[in-house]
Amino acid sequence: MASDASTAGRYPSRIVCLTEESTETLYLLGAEERIVGISGYTLRPARARLEKPRVSAFTSAKIDKIVALQPDLVLGFSDLQADIAAELIRRGLAVHVFNHRTVAGILQMICVLGALVGASDRAQALVRDLEAKIAAAREEALAASRRPRVYFEEWDEPMICGIAWVSELIAIAGGVDCFADLAGGALAKARIIADAQEVVRRRPDVIIGSWCGKKFRPQRLSQRPGWAEVPALRCGHVYEIKSCDVLQPGPAALTDGLRQMQEIFRRWSSDPAVERSTSRSEHGQA
Fold it and tell me: pTM here?
C-alpha cells in the first residue's frame, strides 16, 4: 500500500470525500486512514459516520472547516458540486470531481481512485469481483422465462425516473426499464415525467421507489389517477430500494442495489398472480 515508508509522500494522505461513494471505495481499498472528512449523507460504511468528521451536505459544504483539515485531495461528484469545487480550488486545494453516470463509469471511478491513492492492485481486484457479480446476474437473467417491465422512481414531486446506471442495473438483473429512453439524461430535469399517465400507458409490472434519501410511500402511488390498474399495483409488486444502496454511483449500487433488484424480479417471476394476470391480458380480459 502507498502508506508505507517507501511510498510516503507520493500519494494523498489527507482526503476529504464530499460524497458517499468515494468514502465507501476508499474503505474497500483499505485506505480509510487517509480520509479526514466526509459528507453528512454518508451511510456506507456505517462506521465512517463514527470515525470521520462531517464537513458537507451535497450541494453545500463547510469550506472553512475543510480548509482547516489541510487536505491534500478533495473528492467530489457531478456538476452539482461545481461551485463547492471552485471555491476549494480558489482556496488552494487540489480537487478531483468525478462525473460518471453509468456502470462502466462506476468501475472506471474505482480504478482512477485506486491510482490516485496508490492502491491500483486492490482497485483492479475490486473491479474484477464486481464484474464477476455483474456477469453472474446477467447469466441468471438470460435463463429467466419472463422479464418484468420496471418503473424506477427516483423522486415523486416532480416524478423523476432512474438515471443511467440504475437503468443498466435493471437490465442486468433481468428487467426492462420502462423509461430507458429517458435514463441517459445526466441531469434530473431531463428525466422528469411530466405526465403521470405515461407510466400507466407503459404498464410496469414492477415499481421500485427510491426517493433520494426521503422515505418511499408506496400507498401514495395508488392515489394517483388511473394508477390502480397498473399491473405492479394490481399484483402488489411495489418495492423500495434505499437510495444509499442504489443511487450512489459507487460499489454499493453494483452489490446491494443489484442484489435487491434480482430478489425483486425473482419474487415477481414466481408469483402465480402475475401469471394469471398476464394470461388474462393476453386474452383481452379485464
Answer: 0.92
